[in-house]
Write a structure and sequence with these properties.
The chain is mostly helical. It contains three helices and no strands. It has one domain (about 15-75). The longest helix has 29 residues, at about 35-60. About 0% of the residues are buried.
Length: about 80
């Protein structure tokens, strides 16, 4: 979690399997608490959302997503 961040307590419903994975991460010492584990996951999702927004903005400025032929050319250039 970001140091000095104000926290707010909320209640959420999560799939049991995800809760178990979070508890397992705490038991293994990979997270200090289930709350910290969930907060880190939300931070990562926020970064992904920000990147998706940036990509949409960049595509809008450059004419939109690659066409099929542009994608094929890019794949060839990358050796795929």
């Amino acid at each position: 979690m970001i140091s000095g961040m104000t926290t707010t307590k909320i209640a959420v419903s999560l799939p049991a399997g995800l809760v178990e994975q979070a508890r397992h991460a705490v038991a293994e010492g990979r997270s200090s608490s289930v709350s910290a584990y969930v907060a880190r996951a939300l931070e990562e999702q926020t970064k992904l959302d920000d990147l998706a927004s940036l990509l949409e903005e960049m595509l809008a400025e450059t004419g939109g997503p690659l066409t099929a032929s542009e994608r094929k050319a890019a794949d060839r250039a990358l050796g795929r």
